[in-house]
Amino acid sequence: MQDTTLILLAAGNSTRFGLPTKKQWLYIKDRPLWLFVAEQFEQFNFVDIIVVANEIELKLMQDFADYKFVPGGKNSRAESVLNALNEVKTDFVLVTDVARCCIDKNVIFRLFDKKQKDSCVVPTLKVTDTSYYDGKPIDREKLLRVQTPQLSCTKSLKEILLNRQNYTDESSAFYDNGKKVTFVEGSSRATKLTYKEDLDNLKCLKPPDNIFRVGEGIDIHAFEEGKAMVLCGVDIDSPVGFKAHSDGDVAIHAIIDALLGASNLGDIGEFFPDTDKKYKNADSKKLLKEVIDLVRNVGYEIVNIDISIVAQKPKISPYKQKMKQRLGEIMQLKQNNINIKATTGEKLGFVGRAEGVVVQAVATLKYYNWERV
C-alpha cells in the first residue's frame, strides 16, 4: 500500500466495556490488543502506521513498537482522526478502530479495489433481522451495518474535519459533504469489541500468558516538627511528621513507585512532581488510587505488595494491621496479599539517629485475565 497510511484509533476510555482494564490494553498472549491489531496490518506494507492514544499511555506504547504515536482528541473520534491526519503524507488513509480486532484480509483487498480520488470506501453488512425505527417496522433490505476500516482520500477527509468534527465515522463525513461513498462487502468476523460479552464471539483473541512482572520502589523522608505523620494511609501518634511537598506518606510513595516500575510507567516524580502546586500537601491515598486505576487500565492486576519500613521511631508494630486494612481498601486487595515488615536502623545513620524513615516496596503484577470474566 505504497500510497496509504494506516490510522489505528486507540484513545477511547472504554466506558461501555465493563471491565477494569481498557479494551485496547487487554493482553492477547503477550501483546496488548492495540499492538495485536497493528501487527496484523503490517502484512499490507503501509507507508506508515499511526497509533492514536490517550496522552498518558503514549509513552508506554512507544516501548512496544516503532510506529508513529499521536495523542487522541479530547472531545471526539473525529478530533483524534484529525490529529493523526496532520502526520499523514500519503494520498490515501485507512482508518480503523482498535475494537475491530479480528482482521479479514479479503475486506482490505475489496476496499483497495474500489479506491478512488475524493471518495470514501466502506465495508458493510446487510441486516438480517426484522428491524423497527421509532416503533414502526422498516424495510431491512435498505439497511446496512457500517464497519471499519474505511479507506479515504486524505486531502478530502482533512478538509472536511477541519470545518466540522462531530462525525462518528469517515463515511458519514463524506456523505454529509456531498462526496462519494462506495460500499463493499464487510465481514461477520469483524465484530466490534464494545461490551465484555463480545469477547465470546472474537475467536481470533487468545487469553493472556501467565506472566508475572515485579517492580521495586524506595522512598526516604526526613522528619519535620509540627507536621502530622501519615504512614500507609494511617494517622500515626507522633510529635513529628515527614518533610515533603505532599503529606509525605513515605510508604505509599514507595508503593506507587513499585507499581509504576512493574508496569513500566516511569516513576512518581513524572506523575506528581514536587514542583507542581497542585500536589502541595496532597493526600497520598488519592495519588495511590490514581496510579492503581492507571495500572489496571493498561492491562494488569495486582498480585501482592510487600513493604519494608526502616524506622528508629515511631514504633510500627501497633499500626501494622490497621495499615494493611487501609491499603487493602485503597488497592481493592485482600489483606493476605499485603505484607508489612518493620525494622529499626540499629541506631546507625540518619535512620538510627531518628532523623527520618526509609521504606522499600515490591509489587507483583500479572496480565489481567479477561477470559475468566
Short synopsis of the structure:
With 373 residues, the chain is of the alpha/beta class.
Mean pLDDT: 94
Q: What is the number of helical segments per DSSP (H or I, 4+ residues)?
A: 11
Major sheet details: 8 strands, mixed
Specify the overall morphology. Answer: elongated
- In terms of DSSP E residues, the strand content is 25-35%
Number of strands: 19
CATH architecture of the largest domain: Alpha-Beta Complex
**What is the CATH third-level topology name of the largest domain?**
Spore Coat Polysaccharide Biosynthesis Protein SpsA, Chain A
Order of helices and strands: EEEHEHEHEHEEEEEHHEEEEEHHHEHEHE
CATH class of the largest domain: Alpha Beta
Could you please describe the fold and organization of this structure?
This protein has eleven helices and 19 strands. With about 375 residues, it is of the alpha/beta class. The protein has two domains: about 200 residues, Spore Coat Polysaccharide Biosynthesis Protein SpsA, Chain A, CATH 3.90.550; about 160 residues, 2-Layer Sandwich (60s Ribosomal Protein L30, Chain: A), CATH 3.30.1330. Strands 1, 4, 5, 6, 7, 10, 11 and 12 form an eight-stranded mixed β-sheet that branches. A five-stranded mixed β-sheet has the order 16-13-19-17-18. The longest helix is centred in the last third of the chain and has 14 residues. It is elongated and about 80 Å long. The mean pLDDT is about 95.
